[in-house]
Amino acid sequence: MSQTVHITAVVTVPAEHAAAAEQAFAACVVESRKEDACRQYVISKDIEKAGRFVANEVWASEAGFEAHLAAPHFKVLGEALAKCGAQADIMKVQPLDETADAA
Fold first, then answer.
1. Could you tell me which SUPFAM superfamilies the record lists for this protein (predicted)?
2. DSSP 37-83
3. CB–CB of 51/13 below 8 Å?
4. CB count, 10 Å around CB of 29?
5. Are the C-beta atoms of residues 40 and 56 closer than 8 Å to each other?
6. Structural domains for the chain
7. pLDDT tens column, 49-90
8. Of 24, 66, 20, 60, whose CA–CA distance to 39 is shortest?
9. Looking at the predicted structure, is the pLDDT value of residue 13 above 80?
10. What distance in Å separates the CA atoms of residue 29 and residue 8, rounded to the nearest whole number?
11. Quick one: CA torsion of 48, 22, 35, 96, rounded to 10 degrees?
12. How much is the CA Rg of the chain, to the nearest whole Å?
């Protein structure tokens, strides 16, 4: 059985591009949640700093995550964020509750 993949990303765009980035994220959320391997796909906006977004994703497998990265809707998001001057810090993470449950 494949191990789930957890992704947390912090994406920042200049405040003047926040609305455009939010629209691009919203479109990607709809399509990403339709992917077979998607277990969770939540994009949140920072209510205290315009232009900062946090993505929390859970994928059924590494292959499912890789398929997401290659999906047309994700490529459209990447292009839109690039136009907005986005900076991203993307992390593959392991929830500590999984480690604790395994003990």
1. Dimeric alpha+beta barrel
2. TEEEEEEEE-SSSTTEEEEEEEESSHHHHHHHHHSHHHHHHHHHHHH
3. yes
4. 15
5. yes
6. 5-102 (3.30.70.100)
7. 999 999 999 999 999 999 999 999 999 999 999 999 999 999
8. 60
9. yes
10. 14
11. -10
12. 14
